[in-house]
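Supplementary Text 2. Reproducibility record for the structural model of the 263-residue chain.

All settings were left at their defaults, and a single model was retained for analysis rather than an ensemble. We include the record here because the model underlies the residue-level annotations in Supplementary Table 4.
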Amino acid sequence: MFTVTYAQLNAWLTAFLWPFTRILALVAVAPVVGNRSVPTRVKIGLAGFITLIVAPTLGAMPQVTVFSAEGVWILVNQFLIGVALGFTMQLVFAVVTTAGDLMGLGMGLGFASFFDPQANTTTPALSSWLNMMAMLAFLAFDGHLQMIAALVATFQSVPVTANVLGASAWRSIASYGAVVLSSGLLLALPVVVALLITNLSLGILNRAAPQIGIFQIGFALTMLVGLFLIQIMMPNLIPYFGRLFDSGIDQMGRVAGALRPPG
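Retained model, structure tokens:
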């Protein structure tokens, strides 16, 4: 007769549950796979499938009862690690959204908005379009596979027993948030500067010849200039997205290094 002791059952449960929590937290927060349009069952299934592959390679887990105070604390730490890594990668897509907001505002498209299921709110049309392009580029560059590989590597650098609540990684995530504004400004800078010059030219023309009716042609002109410049930027836009994704993967490694316990 096949019998299972409580110690064996606890060992099997901890070997699956703790890695599963870290992986599921990243899947729920990370870009593309964490999109609100992806069903919850798909996210749980994907996290469970990855865990079944990764768990046998992690070695022995701490001899702790899974539902004890220490076991629950380990579970909380795994959740925090996964959220930190997923949020770090999510910041890369915030760069694209910020650039779209800045360009759309200068083009006069700030009022044109769509419902974004990922953010669960309305976003400008240009931001939604750039975000969609970034997601397609992310999949084309195998960014989702690199992100999962970076997550799996953290099981070696940040063991399951790590206490990450007081780690310096949270400060590094906050400082990395400054990249969102700076990189978004750099991406939108050509369009913003060109639109500023266009608006200044229209203002000078309005002062020189008020009878032309600048307010009637200004909106159409700024939109055409913006769309023309975005079309010119397209050949260099995808490689720029690739560099952003590489930066996000590298930052995940730095965050994991900061989460590593001392010694």
